[in-house]
Amino acid sequence: MAFDVKTFTTRTITASIFVAVLLSCILFHAVSFTMLFLIISIWGLYEFYILSERLGAKPYKWLGYLLALFIYVYNLLSYNTLLSTTSLLAAIIVCVFLVFIQALFDTDEHSFKNITYTLTGVMYAVIPFVLLNKIAGVDITSQINYNPHYVLGIILLIWTNDVCAYLVGSFFGKHKLFERVSPKKTWEGTVGAAILTIGASFLIAQWFNELALVHWIVIAMLVSVFGTIGDLVESMFKRQAGVKDSGKIMPGHGGILDRFDSLLFVSPFIFLYLSLFK
């Protein structure tokens, strides 16, 4: 394939802007962090619903957006226990039931499919970023508990895993990992990337020593396993929907779900691990 200068330039500019905005918002303040990922989660939910429609569903978009916004904002308010966990659970259940009530008045014979895609979109595209706020200790009233290093370390490990999987796979890849879903991924690239990502965790532990080395090693392992699975799941979703990218918000790089597919899958498992063993 001939080298396309225009495509390369577009991808480089887009990637540079993406990295600059992402790192700036993470490092600057808890408010910039949470606002960035609120925008990302709502846009990701929008892309999920567009893909759902290509699969024949008719998700209840506005109820989904309201539910997503409610859960995200409630999480911020509940950091200092201004609102109880019990009331949050009750409120979420009420919102979920509102989706079922909407379906009751839906004349579409596949209304249950519409319910499923509406709620799955919130779980897939929004909840992981809610948990990312918890990992970072976001408190919009104070900077005291906010620590961007956890999330920054996770993102750097994800980037390491992605780049190394591509490079190792390009040079040594022979055995397909999951050809039906992602023909370019290989076992050699995946295993090689996992080893190099674990190696990178030793550097991350030196830079961000709030967490012990053993925790960063485990996080690197979680990134290697579930980051790869997240990539495969997103590829499966797009393949079934008949599209190459989840969106076009980032020229040359696709959509929000394309760029954050690994983080979406990784953050719940890392949150669970840190909650239990940190």
Shape: globular
Question: Could you tell me the number of beta strands?
Answer: 2
Structural class: mainly alpha
How large is the share of residues in beta strands? under 5%
Strand order of the largest sheet: 1-2
Number of domains: 1
Low-confidence stretches: none
Could you estimate the helical fraction of the residues in percent?
over 70%
Secondary-structure element string: HHHHHHHEEHHH
Q: Rounded to an integer, what's the Rg over CA atoms?
A: 20 Å
Would you tell me the overall average pLDDT? 85
Count helical runs. Answer: 10
- How far apart are the first and last residues' alpha carbons, in Å? 48 Å
Largest sheet: 2 strands, antiparallel
Descriptive terms for the model:
single chain; 278 residues; two-stranded antiparallel sheet; 75% helix; 3% strand
Question: Could you characterize what this model shows?
Answer:
The protein is mainly α. It has one domain. The protein contains ten helices and two strands; from the N terminus they run H-H-H-H-H-H-H-E-E-H-H-H. Strands 1-2 form a two-stranded antiparallel ribbon. Strand 1 and strand 2 (182-186) form a beta hairpin. Helix 1 packs across helix 2 and helix 3 (61-77) runs parallel beside helix 5. It is globular and about 55 Å long.
In short:
The chain is mainly alpha-helical and 278 residues long. Helix content is 75%, strand content 3%.
